[in-house]
TrEMBL record:
Keyword terms, alphabetized: Electron transport, Heme, Iron, Membrane, Metal-binding, Mitochondrion, Mitochondrion inner membrane, Transit peptide, Transmembrane, Transmembrane helix, Transport, Tricarboxylic acid cycle
Keyword Mitochondrion: yes
Biological process (GO), any one: tricarboxylic acid cycle
Protein name: Succinate dehydrogenase cytochrome b560 subunit, mitochondrial
Family designation: Belongs to the cytochrome b560 family.
Required co-factors: heme b
Main location per the UniProt record: mitochondrion
Source organism (scientific name): Sus scrofa (Pig)
A GO term for molecular function: electron transfer activity
Purpose: Membrane-anchoring subunit of succinate dehydrogenase (SDH) that is involved in complex II of the mitochondrial electron transport chain and is responsible for transferring electrons from succinate to ubiquinone (coenzyme Q). SDH also oxidizes malate to the non-canonical enol form of oxaloacetate, enol-oxaloacetate. Enol-oxaloacetate, which is a potent inhibitor of the succinate dehydrogenase activity, is further isomerized into keto-oxaloacetate.
Pathway the protein acts in: Carbohydrate metabolism; tricarboxylic acid cycle
A single GO cellular-component term on record: mitochondrial inner membrane
Membrane topology: Multi-pass membrane protein
Amino acid sequence: MAALLLRHVGRHCLRAHLSPQLCIRNAVPLGTTAKEEMERFWNKNLGSNRPLSPHITIYRWSLPMAMSICHRGTGIALSAGVSLFGLSALLLPGNFESHLELVKSLCLGPTLIYTAKFGIVFPLMYHTWNGIRHLLCWTFAGGASWESSNNALCVDGQPS
């Protein structure tokens, strides 16, 4: 096998050394270039006024889809909130008690205080219980069918 390879390479090098014109291959255009194909493709798609596929508007919303999006959104919000809280603790002057006294001195009504508390606790609880539901229903239960996941009640009492 190696002898055949060496013979082929040796003949190729000998041909290139003796007559370089024999080794030059004639370039023949194949028809269209990749750039022309891409331009034709994009012009055709822009002319049809279609959205890019797959587009979010082609899907029918379901409860698991909405819960998954909310789970990701609450996770991002919690990560951002914890990061901002940590940065503010490092960068702002004073300590926690002084900031708490500042909030008390604003004399905010109980409605606003309870709404703010709910806005802080709800994403945390939703993300926590949805994560536990996912862990129990999909990891330990070995998964579920789409029909049972749409109808089953798991840990948090929400349809999964």
